[in-house]
Structure formats: structure tokens, C-alpha cells
Specification:
The chain has 337 residues and is an alpha/beta fold. It contains twelve helices and 13 strands. It has two domains: 118 residues, 2-Layer Sandwich (Nucleotidyltransferase, domain 5); 189 residues, 3-Layer(aba) Sandwich (Hexokinase, domain 1), CATH 3.40.367.20. The strands form three sheets. Strands 8-13-12-9-10-11 form a six-stranded mixed beta sheet, sandwiched between helices.
Amino acid sequence: MTSKVPAGVPTDSSQQGSTSSRIIVADVGGTYARLGWIDANGDNEIHDYRRYACAEHADLASILRDYGTGTPCHGAVVAIAGVLEGDRLINSNLPWSVSVEQTRVGAGLAWVQLINDFEAVANAVPTLSPDTLSSLTPSTMAATTSPALVIGPGTGLGAAVWIEGQPPRVLPTEVGQASLAAGNALEMEIVRRLLKDRPYLHNEHVLSGPGLMNLYRCLCELRDTAPVHADAGALVAAAASDPLARETLETFCGWLGSVVGDLAIIFGARVVYLAGGVTAHIPQFLHDGRFLQRYLNKGVMTEQLERVPVWRVEHGQLGLAGAVAWYRQNRKSRPAR
């Protein structure tokens, strides 16, 4: 998704004398939208955090409009999954279509800027504090912090690459839509079965919240067992006592480790940050060794990956922090005309 600053994004000088210097920052996923506001001329503190269930609202504009009721805001930076093509967002996980201009008008804002959700998350990397990071690898030191791969399973599978510089650059990706590769006999059988019902199998068909349930149902079929869990929350909760639920999570984490290792090699990453809504609920499975084993199982590249640390990020407002960082980096200062 493009991150070019639109003509409507105000400069520092254009904020002077405006009716409101409040800017909405939002992180919109397939399930929830998280919103707050910042002072355009102040610090990075996020005020009045709220969470909305996307399916309960007619469109993105109605969420922004509801949030702004009683709290007039000038514009909005929205971190959202997908690719922006002109005025339209291409996304398969949202409950509604998104037009930038229709959203702006419907929300009653002077301007709206959409950025890729993981572009936002990557922009937040420099702001991460040590107490939000938990190591998934023996190595916790890297020769350099750039390029940094940021990846995470949620409603989909997002990823971006952060590259240091003045200003830093972010490469958004659509890794979730890339083909899913099997790395062992079990995964090959899962892929074979899943391909019976579709012509193309992408990463997030397994490595996401909904994908976790696809994986579970496929394993139930392989083990000749009827599924008993209706959603990912129930599956995770049952993992301590249900062997098939536990196998699902173990398979998921190993497979995720393999994909993360592939991407670290492809992008030449020197550090990896694992985020996303799913990872926050399964830390014990990510840390049990399967993720690390598959992350490092890359033949001649294993030695290189041993020097690339992977951090699990524990930060409830990472997307919002990234939207704030994007706004600060892209707001231009120039004299008023």
C-alpha cells in the first residue's frame, strides 16, 4: 500500500488556527478496529482508546464518525490490512469495502490517510521498549537492527520490512497471499487435502486466526475425529487437555517458524519481530522449541539465521503507535503561504 502523503494531510503550519488539532489514529483489522487520538502539535500520547467490532458497523466511516462524536477531529491515519489501488482498498478479510473519499466524507473529516497495517507496525519498531519483547531464539544480539522483519498472524497474516535511514523506510508486503509451502510429511498431507477444495493455497489459509481452525479441521479429518471446537479461542483454551487441539497449535507454531525463517532469508533481515493477535494467545507454544527448530532448519543458511534474533512483541497498541509514528514522519513543516 502506498504511503505517499496526500494533499489533504496538513502541514504543521496548516494546523495553526484549525478548529481542532486532534488526529484520529486507528488500527483496523478483519475483526476489530482500535482507535485513539493524538494532538497534532503535541507529544505521541494516545488518548481515549476504544475498540470496535468491525462486523457491528456498516463501514469504516461509521466507526470513525462514532469515535469523533463529541470529540471533533481534523483528520485520520488509519492502519488497515490490504493494498490501496487508487481510491479503493483491496482486502479479503474486512466485512465491508473501503473507499478513501467515501470514508472521508462519511466520517466528516478534512482528510483520511490509509496505510498498510504492518507498515504501521513496522514504523513502531524503533519505539519498542525492552519490557515489551520476549526472545524466541538463543541469540538476542544482532550486528545491526536493520533490515527488521515484522510479521504477525491475526485475522490474516501481515508482514513488512523496516529499513533504517533519514527518514527510515518501510516495505509493506502481502506475504499472507503468497503460496504456503510444506516442510515435512504432515504438512504435505495437509496441503494436499486443503488443495482438494481450492485451486490456490496461500499462507494465511493456515497461518492466521481463521487458518488455525482450517488446520484443526484438517487434522481432525486426518485423525478420523469429529471437530469439537467452534473457534480459535475455544481451541486454545482446550489445548492443555485436548491432544488434537495441542497438536494443532504445535503444528501451527512449527509451520510459522518455517515461514518466518524463509522470509528472514528472502529479505536479508537482521532482526525479526513477531506480532499479531494470534501470537498473544499462544506464547507457551511459540516458546516450546518447535518454532525455533523450524526457523533454523534452513540448510546452509542455518548458521546465518542463528545470528538473527526473533522477538515476540507484547504490545496491545502497536498498530496505533505505528500510525502515530507514520504521521510524525510524514507531516511536513514549511512556512505558511
